[in-house]
Design goal:
It is a single chain. The protein is mainly α. It contains seven helices and no strands. The chain has one domain. 68% of the residues lie in helices and 0% in strands. The longest helix has 56 residues. The chain is globular and about 75 Å long.
Length: 173
């Protein structure tokens, strides 16, 4: 995995302790396991970050940081993955989530969908439930898919390195 690449973006714990905003999360946030990049912490960060990215809510990054603590997920990666839902991808993601929600609930509002802020605000009372149900399900699917993908890719990378090491050892002898 690109451990060295991610490592350059992770702040030093001493720098974090000076940040007063992080004091709200308590002393548990300074646990080195929450900042170290290893297979399980990265996989859990994908589970956590992608789940929160799918939910239409303010302060997604804060939710990802708070839930990373009990999950023992890598905090910076959890926060960064929330940006999967950015201003460019958000309309598409939330529209798909809405479609998933309406297919599960079995109801959709009679008004034809329009991609505009005015339409969304005028129809909010009708679309919020299917949107959140679809977003929750989509978040679980995205998170679990990310979690399993990282575990599989990490294992593949480790096996590849072991096989390359074995090959080099055989060539030396």
């Amino acid at each position: 995995m690109p451990k060295r690449y991610f490592k350059q973006f992770i702040p030093h714990p001493d720098k974090l302790k000076k940040n007063r905003a992080l004091a709200l999360l308590g002393n548990k946030i300074y646990d080195p396991d929450l900042w170290h990049l290893h297979r399980k912490s990265v996989a859990k960060a994908f589970l956590n970050g992608l789940f929160w990215a799918a939910l239409p809510m303010p302060l997604q990054m804060l939710a990802a940081a708070v839930f990373a603590i009990p999950l023992k997920a890598n905090i910076p990666l959890s926060i960064a993955l929330v940006w999967v839902s950015n201003p460019i991808t958000m309309p598409f993601l939330f529209y798909v989530n809405y479609l998933i929600g309406t297919s599960i609930i079995g109801s959709s509002h009679g008004s034809e969908f329009q991609l505009s802020i005015e339409w969304i605000w005028s129809q909010l009372e009708h679309i919020w439930l299917p949107l959140y149900i679809g977003s929750f399900i989509s978040g679980i699917i995205m998170g679990v898919s990310g979690y399993l993908s990282i575990l599989i890719l990490w294992r593949h990378k480790v096996n590849k390195r072991w096989n390359a090491r074995k090959l080099r050892t055989k060539k030396k002898h």
